[in-house]
Each structure stands twice: as structure tokens, then as C-alpha cells.
Design a protein that fits this description.
88 residues; mainly alpha; 4 helices; globular; binds zinc ion
């Protein structure tokens, strides 16, 4: 099975998924993968949580968007590395 490719596709779509801008078909594919892939599900929850956190902080402290970008970039890099390396 080519699971890593699926994971990368899902991770690539995660932002759009969270923005609720995917088509119904794509949502189904992403949801199905998340339900069957704990690492991606974990990443999804983390991103979802992070978004809420950033939103709250942005309201209260006016956090610069560059900070958010930095956090997201770091998270994505580390998770992608883990996904492409596969389980150990
Ligand atoms: Zn996955």
C-alpha cells in the first residue's frame, strides 16, 4: 500500500479542509483517511486546536501572523518528516 502518498495528500489538503473549502468528495476522502490514520488524525486535531488558539490570541493580543506562520511551518516540517520516514 502506498500509505505515505495518501498521508502527504491529506496533509496537503488539511488547511483547505479546515477552511471548509474542499468539495464534498474531497472532504469524504480526507475524513476517511483521518479516520484510518492516527498520525494524520493527530495532526488534524493539532492544526484545528492551533487555529482556535491563534484566533483567540489574535483577538486578545493582536499576534503577528508571522508568528503563526512560523509555528505552522515548524509543525508541518516535523510532521512531514515523520510521515515520510515512516514508522520506526
Ligand atoms: Zn495518514
Amino acid at each position: 500500500m502506498n500509505d505515505h502518498r495518501r498521508c502527504q495528500e491529506t496533509v496537503a489538503k488539511l488547511q483547505t479542509f479546515l477552511d471548509r473549502e474542499l468539495s464534498t468528495d474531497e472532504v469524504g476522502v480526507v475524513r476517511f483517511h483521518l479516520d484510518n490514520c492516527p498520525p494524520c488524525e493527530h495532526l488534524f486535531r493539532f492544526e484545528d486546536h492551533l487555529r482556535r488558539l491563534v484566533k483567540i490570541r489574535a483577538c486578545t493580543e493582536n499576534a503577528p501572523s508571522s508568528l503563526r506562520e512560523q509555528i505552522l511551518a515548524r509543525v508541518r516540517t516535523s510532521d512531514l518528516n515523520r510521515l515520510t520516514e515512516g514508522p520506526r
